[in-house]
Design a protein that fits this description.
The chain is an all-alpha fold and 213 residues long. The chain contains 6 helices and no strands.
């Protein structure tokens, strides 16, 4: 006579319950292949690799376990840079040119000669003042160079008026205001190559001063 074969994972001799040979098995028991995850249901794929992560700063996916940003949203935008104050720069250049011309004329009239370093200083003062006040606008170096030429020229006329004031026994201001045409004629007759070099040095110094401001 043959004996009935017990079902898998059932100890021989155990009796089925209500005719069910598998009723004696414990629910959730691990399968025999040793895989602890065999009984878990796989999650439904969503197509998003960052689905389980919290949102990071600026909309980037954060790392697991890291808190979300305190305020969220986009960062504060930096303030827009102020516009170049070209008008103020031009005013500053004109004022610097007048001051430089007066200083140039006083020094040239006192020593009765022209000095190239003074022309360079006047030009640098004009260009530096223009860009320092008006910002880095490309028009300011050009305007500063033109104004520096006028400043050096005006300074030379002031120097001539100071020198002639001792000869004609009149004040330099009177000669400069009442006999301005005579001063320009004297400048034209007495100018030489170095006179124009000083004008060029002033323009170059003004352009360089505007770039360095």
């Amino acid at each position: 006579m043959s004996q009935p074969v017990p079902p898998p994972d059932q100890q021989p001799g155990s009796q089925p319950v209500d005719g069910n040979p598998y009723a004696a098995q414990q629910p959730g028991a691990q399968p025999g292949d040793g895989n602890p995850y065999a009984g878990q249901q796989p999650g439904a794929p969503t197509g998003n690799p960052f689905a389980g992560q919290q949102a990071g700063a600026y909309g980037q996916p954060g790392q697991p376990g890291q808190p979300a940003p305190a305020f969220g949203g986009a960062p504060f935008a930096p303030p827009a840079p102020p516009r170049d104050k070209v008008a103020l720069g031009l005013v500053a250049a004109v004022v610097a040119a007048l001051v430089g011309a007066f200083l140039y004329g006083v020094i040239a009239g006192a020593i009765e000669r022209e000095v190239g370093y003074i022309a360079i200083g006047v030009g640098f003062l004009v260009g530096f003042a223009a860009s320092k006040v008006g910002g880095r606008n490309p028009i300011l170096p050009v305007v500063s160079a033109v104004l520096s030429v006028g400043a050096v020229y005006l300074g030379q006329l002031i120097g001539i008026s100071i020198i002639l004031s001792d000869l004609v026994h009149q004040s330099a201001s009177t000669l400069f205001i009442d006999h301005f045409d005579a001063l320009t004629k004297a400048w034209s007759e007495g100018s030489d190559f170095m006179t124009y070099v000083f004008l060029l040095l002033g323009a170059m110094a003004a352009f360089g001063g505007a770039k360095k401001a």
